[in-house]
Amino acid sequence: MTADDFGPVLAKAHAHATAYLTAQPERHVGARCSHAELDGVLRTPLTSRGEDPAAVIDLLAGQAGNAAVACGSPRYFGFVIGGTYPVALAADWLVSSWDQNAGLYAISPLCSVAEDVAGDWLLDLFDLPRESEVGFVTGCQMANFTCLAAARHGVLARVGWDVEADGLCGAPKVNIVTSAESHVTVDVALRYLGFGTRSLLRVESDDQGRMRVDRLQELMQTLEGPTIICAQAGNVNTGAFDPLREIAQLASAHGAWLHVDGAFGLWARASERLAGLADGIELADSWATDAHKWLNVPYDCGVAIVRHAEDHRKAMTSTAAYLIQTRGAERDPVDWVPEFSRRARGVPVYATLRALGRDGVRDLVERCCDRARQMAQALGAHPGIEILNEVVLNQVLVRFGDDDALTRAVIEGVQKDGTCWLSGTTWHGMGAMRISVSNWQTTEADAAASVAAILRVFEEVKRLGEA
Ligand SMILES: *Cc1c(COP(=O)(O)O)cnc(C)c1O
């Protein structure tokens, strides 16, 4: 192969990608293939002589229409996924083409500076302390990990313990406070950091999944020594926000580190209309969020933000004799993330923020919330359908006939129907359909067509049940 070989195979990929993206808004949203079929197509003994690269690309692309779920569809409402902006995808293609190792400035001045600027724009957009440091990681799981590693360093350093050098054995005890409704990735991040899940102090939450401040206050009075509080902006089921200002005041009164998981909720700060939900969030010490969810850049991209640069850097930095590390204005991303070699995943963030501007991001966030409210109102007006949450953001929980089995049957029926895709959850012991609107492409008509499909399936399931 030679450098000339890039052209034909990339042209193929471009044609396949364009066809996929153009067909996506109209296609059946779910996957339509069995595991056996797909395995039969993809599995073959690894050949000795290899195959024609263009044929390999054709083979993979040929499966995407059926075997990939159309997560970028304007009528995909599963989990909290987010679509992809054209400019984000284009920038991501460039990142792959450049094949830069974004760990060190010396390897890629371009990626280092683009990410540095993108980080500053995020601080500005979220109105967080401008002295904070930003690391681009794979997702909010790793953003929680990075922030909580900085927190672990910070609270232990303040009592004279160097956790990076001496570890946790024999260290002063660190109290870790989470809520009954913390996202599972916060628990996992803490587990990776040596704080076993059984040791976590869980504060009760209210009917919307918000941490109860009265219970936190009671708990804080019983705690001494280094303490980390993990709060949440945007509950993965209800979209609810913990009362962040009150929690921040308690954290500050007790000298605790406050970390906020704002995987998608932090984006409420981009809208004046919604920012009040996250009131006081700027008082925290660290914030984890995702760009691959609500900013609609391709997977993967999470963002770790830490107010205290020294704690962040000490928890993450690595040095080795052969590294060429920088000082001053030139920034080595390796100092702010767990990864050593890494993809320049902040570059699509740079491109997307630059293309959208402040108004574009606000518009994206507000439109998604408007569509969520539209769907909640239309569904909730129908007899036998109940909306279980206060729709404050982009998340809606729907229950059918006040019945778990019926609700499950509607979810399955809607997935099979293919007009839209969504999944289920259990909320306070009740089965529910979960709708998350987080794609720039979702229009009022998409929301209406999806509601119509859900109602059609509901009537059908009821009819079959009565027969
Ligand atoms: C999605 C999500 C996470 C995990 O983010 P990943 O990007 O999947 O690692 C953490 N917290 C909340 C609230 C989430 O919604």
From TrEMBL:
Cofactor: pyridoxal 5'-phosphate
The organism of origin for this protein: Dokdonella immobilis
One annotated GO biological process: carboxylic acid metabolic process
Modified residues (N6-(pyridoxal phosphate)lysine): 293
Name the UniProt record assigns to this protein: Glutamate or tyrosine decarboxylase
Top-level lineage group: Bacteria
GO MF terms, alphabetically ordered: carboxy-lyase activity; pyridoxal phosphate binding
Pfam annotation, one family: Pyridoxal_deC
Organismal lineage: Bacteria, Pseudomonadati, Pseudomonadota, Gammaproteobacteria, Lysobacterales
Membership in a protein family: Belongs to the group II decarboxylase family.
Keywords of this entry: Decarboxylase, Lyase, Pyridoxal phosphate
